[in-house]
Write a structure and sequence with these properties.
Keywords: Oxidoreductase. Belongs to the short-chain dehydrogenases/reductases (SDR) family. By secondary structure, this protein is α/β, with parallel strands linked by helices. It is built from five helices and five strands, in the order βαβαααβαββ. A three-stranded parallel sheet has the order 1-2-3, with helices on both faces. The chain has a two-stranded antiparallel ribbon with strand order 4-5. The longest helix is centred in the N-terminal third of the chain and has 21 residues.
Length: about 160
């Protein structure tokens, strides 16, 4: 890319790169690290005409997420939709692909150093996913591992 003086570097991080308290320290730290790397590369690579950006999705009900949470896709979609600020839409993997396509395209030629929140406004307000998840699923069992929280529940209502 540097010899051609053009190109796009696109990272995928998470809403956890800007919202804290919903995931483990290690997960949050890793997402902040990706966002920080993106910003540093933005400064370094701009001189070569290389754009650097990141996509930060909120929750998307992929097979890996439904499996790790132990719930079906319909239930997870309901939780995602209910906890979203932007009502009437449920994000899916193709939505994230469209965001990536935009950021990689010439239409985004001036977009550089952006951590794009592909979250329907979730990070603009007090995050509600955890509260809705607990209400919809009955919370945690004492001593059980919660893949959403990435920790062992100390008591029934985390």
């Amino acid at each position: 890319m540097t010899p051609r003086k053009s190109g796009v570097i696109l990272f995928t991080t998470s809403h956890a790169s800007v919202v804290c308290g919903e995931t483990s320290h290690a997960y949050t730290m890793s997402k902040h690290a990706i966002a920080g790397l993106m910003k540093n590369l933005c400064v370094e690579m701009g001189q070569y005409g290389i754009r650097v950006n990141a996509i930060s999705p909120y929750a998307v009900s992929t097979p890996i997420l439904t499996h790790s949470l132990g719930i079906d896709k319909a239930t997870l979609d309901e939780v995602i939709t209910e906890s979203a600020v932007l009502k009437g839409v449920t994000p899916d993997a193709m939505d994230m692909a469209h965001v990536a396509l935009y950021l990689a395209s010439d239409e985004a030629k001036l977009v550089h150093g952006l951590n794009l929140m592909a979250d329907g406004g979730y990070t603009v307000t007090n995050p509600a996913f955890s509260l809705v998840f607990k209400r919809s699923t009955g919370g945690h069992n004492k001593g059980s591992y919660c893949p959403l929280c990435l920790r062992v529940a100390d008591f029934i209502d985390i």
